[in-house]
Amino acid sequence: MIEITAMLPEHWEAVKTIYEEGIATGNATFQTVAPTWEEWDTSHIATCRFVAIENNEVLGWAALTAVSGRCVYAGVAEVSVYVAAKAKGKKIGSLLLQALVTESEKNGYWTLQSGIFPENKQSIYIHEKNGFRVVGYREKIGKIKNVWRDNVFLERRSTTVGVD
């Protein structure tokens, strides 16, 4: 049975390994190396980070990052969801994304956004299945190893937060 629980510092080594798997695919992130725990911890929202655990093993993680320090964007965050290669097909990405949506709304977030490489069709599918919609396509938004890459830009607007 897969359990979704709050990410703790002791999960970091497993989280980092899964992140590095994603980096190695070339289709998960613009990052080329995983950060230290300290760097990662300070850049992600403390109340919105989860791990998926099965048989005492971390098989995936998800977290939110603030998109801006400006107060008008205080309810907008960027989504990260990563699943270990050996755990694909277990619906872990959807479970983690659902946990992020629920917790983000408890913490006053009205918009979640995600930039996904168009080649990462499974991630786009999981996001759309969980209430995200494509709002744009960003051409040559950044480089990996000196190669320009595009992103599909998705967002999910809360139906309970920021609707007034």
Describe the protein in words.
The structure is a single chain. This protein has 164 residues and is an alpha+beta fold. 27% of the residues lie in helices and 35% in strands. The chain contains four helices and seven strands, in the order E-H-H-E-E-E-H-E-H-E-E. It has a seven-stranded mixed β-sheet with strand order 1-2-3-4-5-7-6. The protein is globular. The chain starts with a strand and ends in a 7-residue tail after the last strand. The relative contact order is 0.16. The mean pLDDT is 96.
The beta-strand count equals: 7
Q: Give the SSE order as H and E letters.
A: EHHEEEHEHEE
Could you describe the largest sheet, including whether it forms a barrel?
7 strands, mixed
**Average pLDDT for all residues:** 96
**How big is the Rg?**
15 Å
Shape by Cα distribution = globular
* Secondary structural class: alpha+beta
Helical stretch tally: 4
Major β-sheet strand ordering: 1-2-3-4-5-7-6
What is the helix fraction of residues, given as a range?
A: 25-40%
Low-confidence region ranges: none
**Strand coverage percent:** 25-35%
Separation of the first and last Cα atoms: 39 Å
